[in-house]
Design a protein that fits this description.
Layout lengths: L12 H4 L10 E4 L5 H10 L6 E3 L2 E6 L8 E3 L5 H4 L4 H8 L12 E7 L5 E4 L8 E7 L3 E10 L14 E9 L4 E5 L1 H5 E5 L4 E2 L15 H9 L4 E2 L3 E7 L3 E3 L1 H6 L5
Parallel strand pairs: 4-15
Antiparallel strand pairs: 1-10, 2-3, 3-5, 5-14, 6-11, 7-10, 7-14, 8-9, 8-11, 12-13
The chain binds 2-oxoglutaric acid (AKG).
2-oxoglutaric acid binds next to strand 5, strand 8 and strand 14.
Keywords: Dioxygenase, Iron, Metal-binding, Nucleus, Oxidoreductase
Subcellular location: Nucleus
GO cellular component, one term: nucleus
């Protein structure tokens, strides 16, 4: 990881180097945030018995799912999610959570997508502070970014089907990369991952962070004339849940993990 010497501050100075220039505002792409060895150290620690199987992916939630009132029952994140490869310290160096209420992540969703799987365009909502740090493990991903507007059909009724969304761009996520989404990028845009076996037409005019990708990645894409075969990708999305209840700690004695 290309680290910064900036001390953590109230803004995101250390992240500025990594801002995706063609995308305003605040998407940051940090290539090679983790080495291949660090990625497999984390992958090996993902508990095999915690998966929830959804129609187009499987999911784990740590330390626990939010309650019906979008509250997190206070409990620490499993230490392997923060200390392996010093992930939490690296977030601090970059100042990723400097402006969030707890100044650190308290919740992690782990998604696994096999080739042909994805997630519909959506927003992450107000339960979380507007900052998400996404680590990509094992295989590349392509995040589609959409405006919240929808195309209107001839009879002027809103068509909210995925194909009617207005796609703005795509962000290519190399294995080991970190993508940080902050502020209005979080609040005002939708994101999704198309459920395909191959990504097509990848290139400088369609991928917002093309210039930030490694030469090897760009060469591989160019050799495939913009076409790339999906592998199985795992994503770790670190967030800060705004409402935290201490009741779990008090009643259930959580927090000893
Ligand atoms: O896997 C990803 O990179 C995106 C996950 C996502 O959009 C979500 O969990 O809301």
């Amino acid at each position: 990881m290309e680290s910064s010497s900036h001390a953590a501050s109230n803004c995101h100075d250390a992240l500025e180097t990594f801002r995706i220039p063609s995308l305003l505002p605040s998407f940051y792409y940090i290539p090679a945030f983790l080495t291949t060895e660090e990625q497999s150290l984390i992958t090996q620690k993902i508990p095999p018995n915690r998966w929830t199987h959804l129609s187009h992916r499987r999911l784990q939630t740590h330390p626990s799912p939010l309650t019906a009132t979008s509250t997190l029952l206070a409990a620490p994140l499993p230490s392997w999610l923060t200390t392996t490869a010093s992930v939490a310290s690296r977030f601090e160096e970059l100042g990723v959570f400097n402006n969030s209420p707890h100044r650190a992540p308290n919740h992690v969703l782990i998604n696994e997508y096999k080739p042909g799987e994805g997630i519909m365009p959506h927003e992450d909502g107000s339960a979380y502070a507007p900052v998400v740090a996404t680590i990509t493990l094992d295989a590349y991903g392509v995040l589609d970014i959409y405006s919240k507007g929808v195309a209107r059909s001839e009879n002027a009724r809103e068509d909210k089907s995925p194909s009617s969304r207005i796609q703005i761009t795509r962000i290519f996520q190399e294995p080991g990369s970190l993508l940080v989404t902050i502020g209005s990028s979080y609040r005002d845009l939708l994101h999704g991952i198309s459920a395909v076996n191959f990504d097509e037409t990848l290139g400088p005019s369609t991928v917002a962070n093309w210039e930030m990708l490694s030469e090897e990645t760009r060469r591989t894409i160019e050799e495939g004339v913009g076409r790339l075969e999906r592998g199985t990708r795992i994503s770790l999305t670190y967030r800060d849940v705004i409402k935290v209840s201490e009741i779990g700690r008090k009643i259930l004695g959580l927090g000893s993990k």
